[in-house]
Amino acid sequence: MKYKGWLLPPAMRDFHEGRIWLREHTAFAKQDIQRAIDRKYLHIIEGIQTTPRLKCNRCHNDKPQFFTLFDCSKCQRQCVYCRHCLSMGRVSSCSQLIIWRGPKAYRRRQHPLRWTGQLTELQQQTADELLESVKARRSHLISAVCGAGKTELLFQSVHYALEKGLRVCMSAPRTDVVLELFPRFQKVFPQTIIHAYYSGAPKQDGYAQLVLATTHQLYRFEQAFDVMIIDEADAFPYSFDKTLASAVQKAKTAQAPIYFMTATPSQTLLNDFKHCSFIAKRYHNKPLPVPRFTALWRYEKSLQRGKLPRKLKEWTEERLAKNEPFLIFVPKIELLKMATPLFQKLHDNIVAVHADDAERKRKVLQLRDEEIPGLLTTTILERGITIKNVQVAVVGAESTIFTASALIQIAGRVGRHEAYADGDVVFFHHGVTLAMDEARETIIYNNKRGFPQ
Amino acid sequence: MKKTEIFCLLCAQPLHLVPSWKSLLFNYFPPCICDKCSAQFQRSSMPTALYQYNDAMKTYLHQYKFLQDVALAKVFRQEIHAQLKRQTATIIPIPMHPQKQQERTFSHTEELLKAAKIPYIQLLAKTTRETQSSKNRAQRLQSAPLFRLLPQAHVERKDYLLFDDIETTGTTLRHAKQVLLEAGAQSVRTFTLING
After folding, report:
1. Where is pLDDT greater, at A158 or A405?
2. What is the pLDDT of residues B12-30, one digit of tens each?
3. How many domains does chain B have?
4. B105 touches A: beta carbon within 8 Å
5. Set of chain A residues whose Cβ sits within 8 Å of the Cβ of B10
6. What residues make up the domain containing B153?
7. How high is the pLDDT of residue B16?
8. Does B67 touch chain A (CB under 8 A)?
9. Is B69 within 8 Å of chain A by CB?
10. How far apart are CA A401 and CA A394, in angstroms?
11. Nearest-CA residue of chain B relative to A95?
C-alpha cells in the first residue's frame, strides 16, 4: 500500500530553519509549503507591518522615505513596498514572509578542529577570556589592534560552541572579508557544514551550523543563531545604517550573546560591554607604525591643474625606487580619476580601484603578487587586506570621510608581516583634523600599552 | 507617489534640490535622480524613442521590471511628459498578459505614463504569456498574433500612438499596430522610452 500522508522534506527544514523568507521566493514545491503551513511548521507574517507605523518585517526599516505606495494589480488596491531591502526580493504589504516553527534540524555534536597554529601569549589569554564568556553565555568585546590575529583566537570558542550544538554566525561588514574568512574556516573545521552568504553567493545545500555572512544578509534570518560574532563592528555600513544593528538583534535568539571584534572601539561600545579583552600588540610583537603628518597645501587645485604635488611625487618615486608596494588613499572618486593619469606618468602600471570596480579583486591580487607597483584607492581597501611590506599614503587626510577609525585601519595595513614589521604611513593633508590627531594618538597609546617602558 | 524624493532613486545619495526660476515658474516635476545618475543615460537619436539602450538602462530596467521597483516609474517622468503632453493622438500603452501583470503586480508601461501624468486608454489585450526577450530574432519575426482587441473596445477612425518601454526588433509594436489598423484606426504611430 502506498503511504498517503506527507513526509516533511528534510531539505525544506534545513533551509527554512532560522530564516525569514518571502513565500513566493522559496525554492520548494507549492504543495509542500502549503502542507507545512497547514501543520504550523511554517508561520506566516505580513511583509509590511502598518500599525503603529509602517515597518518592513524583514529589514526592520521604518523610515517613511524608503516606502513607496503603488496600485497593486495583484490585490486591486494600494499596496506599500520597502525599497530598503529591495535587492533581496521585494517585500510589499501583500507579500507573505514565512518563518520555520517546525521540528529543528539535526545538529552534529562532533566538529573536529584542525588547527596547528600557535597563539601568542596575549592571544591565548584573550582566547581564554572569550571562551569563559562563551561558556557563561555572556556578551564580550574584543578590542585588538590591526594585525593582532583576531580570527585565530576565535577558533577555540567557535569550536566549543559548535560541539555544544549551538548555531554560530560570524558576520563581517564586507563581502571581501567574508570571502577571505570562508576558506580559512573551512580549513580549520573540515567536517563542519559552513555556509557563506553575501550578495551573489551560490546556492549551498544542507544545514549549516556555522554561517559566515555579510551584515546585510542577516536581514534574511530571524532567531537563528545562538552565538553571534560581529567582526569589524565599527566598519562603514554597520555604524552608518541603524537597521543593521537591529538586524543583528533579530538574527540571533533572544538570549544569544554577541561577541564584538574591533580594532577601533567607540566609547559607546566600551560602555555597553561589561566584559572586554584588549590586545595592544601585534602577533609578531612589534610596535604599530605611527603615522606622520605632511602638509600638502592645496593639493586639489594642483591636481586639477594636472600636476602632482612635489612631496607626493617624491614619496611615490621613492617607493618605486625601493621597489616597495604602496597604497594611496584618496577621499573621492573624482579625485581618484583626476590623479590616476598623473601617477601613470611616473609608472605605467599604477592602477586605481574604487567600489564599483568589477576588477578590484584582481587588482589587489596583482599588487600582492608584485605585478603592479601600487594602487590608488578610495576607502574601500581600508580594511581586510594584507599585503607584504606595503607602504601607505593618505592624500587629503583632512577629509571628513577619513574618520579616526578609518585612519587607524588604514595605518593598520602597514607592517603586518613579521619580516616587514615597520613601514611608512604618511597622511598628506590640507590642515590637521581632530580625527587625524585622534588616530595618531590612539596608535601611540596602543604602542605604549603594548610595550610599557 | 506624490512625495518629493530626498534621495536619488537610483544611487540613494541625498539629492540637493536647488530651487530655480524654471522650477518655480514652470510646472516641472521635482527631480528624483541625481545629476550623476542622469548623466549615465544616453539620449536616442531616433525620433520615436527617448533613450538609447546602454548599461545604465539595463540596470534601470532590471530594477524596475524584475525587482519590481515601481518607484522608478518616476525617473523619466519629466522627459516623457515633455514629449507626450502635446500629443493629439490617443495614447495606448502596450498591455501585459493579465496573469503576468498579477505576478509583477503592476504594468510597467502604464506606470510610466501615470507617473508622467499622461492620459491613456487601453484597447488591446495580450494573448500570450511568452516574452519577446526569451526568443531570438527569427522566432520573434514569425510569432503568432500577440494582441487582440479588448471585448468592448471601440476603435475609432482616429490617430493612435502606441507606447512601450523598449523596442528591439519592433515585433511587439508591429503586432499591436496591425490589430489597431485592421480594426479601423486611421493611423498608428509608435513611441518608446528606450531604443534597443
Report:
1. A158
2. 888 887 888 887 888 888 8
3. 1
4. yes
5. none
6. 33-132+141-195
7. 83
8. yes
9. yes
10. 12
11. B105
Residue B147 placed within a domain: yes
Residues of chain B found within 8 Å of residue A89, distances taken between Cβ atoms: 67
- Inside any domain, residue B28: no
| CA-to-CA separations, B17 to A64, B13, B14, B29, B116, in angstroms, rounded | 19, 12, 9, 12, 20
Strands (E) in B62-184, as ranges, are 90-93, 124-126, 147-149, 159-167
Lowest-pLDDT range of A191-195, A221-225, A388-392, B129-133: B129-133
- Which amino acid would we find at residue A141? L
Question: Measured between alpha carbons, how far is B160 from B153 in angstroms, rounded to an integer?
Answer: 14
| The three three-digit cell numbers of residue A214, written as one number | 555579510
Query: Which amino acid would we find at residue A183?
Result: P
Grid coordinates given for B93: 500603452
How confident is the model over A254-268, as pLDDT tens digits? Answer: 999 999 888 888 887
> CB burial class (10 A; 0-12, 13-18, 19+) of residue A368?
middle
Angle of helix A310-322 relative to helix A333-346, nearest 10 degrees?
A: 60
* pLDDT for position A128: 93
Does residue A169 or residue B133 have the better pLDDT? A169
What is the spatial order of strands in the sheet that A194-197 belongs to? Answer: A194-197, A210-214, A168-172, A227-231, A258-262, A140-144, A276-279
Assess if residue B44 is contained within a domain: yes
Mean pLDDT of B8-12: 90
User: What's the whole-number average pLDDT of chain B?
Assistant: 89
ipTM beyond cut 0.90 = no
**Residue B1, pLDDT above cutoff 60:** no
Write out the three cell numbers for A2. 502506498
Three-state SS for A286-350 is CCCCCCEEEECCCHHHHHHCCCCCHHHHHHHHHHHHHCCCEEEECCCHHHHHHHHHHHHHHCCCC
Nearest to A70 among B63, B67, B106 (CB): B106
CB-based contact, B16 to chain A, within 8 Å: no
- Using pLDDT thresholds of 50, 70 and 90, give the confidence band for residue B138: confident
Strand partners, A427: A293, A394
B188 within domain boundaries:
yes
CB-based contact, B4 to chain A, within 8 Å: no
Question: How much is the mean pLDDT over chain A?
Answer: 89
- Residues B69, A71: C-beta atoms closer than 8 Å: no
What would the mean pLDDT of B129-158 be, rounded to a whole number? 81
Q: Chain B residue closest to A86 (CA)? A: B67
The CATH number for B182's domain is 3.40.50
Contact A90 B69 (CB under 8 A): yes
Is 70 exceeded by the pLDDT of residue A236? no
pLDDT tens, position by position, A103-139:
999 898 899 999 888 888 889 999 999 999 999 999 9
Question: DSSP state, B63?
Answer: I
Contact A217, A175 (CB under 8 A): no
A41-49: average pLDDT: 93
- Identify the structural domains of chain A with CATH numbers, from first to last: 10-100 (no CATH), 121-279 (3.40.50.300), 292-450 (3.40.50.300)
Cell numbers at A263, concatenated? 580594532
Q: How far is B109 from chain A (nearest CA, A)?
A: 13
Tell me the backbone φ, ψ of residue B147, rounded to 5 degrees: -130, 155
pLDDT exceeds 90 at position A186? yes
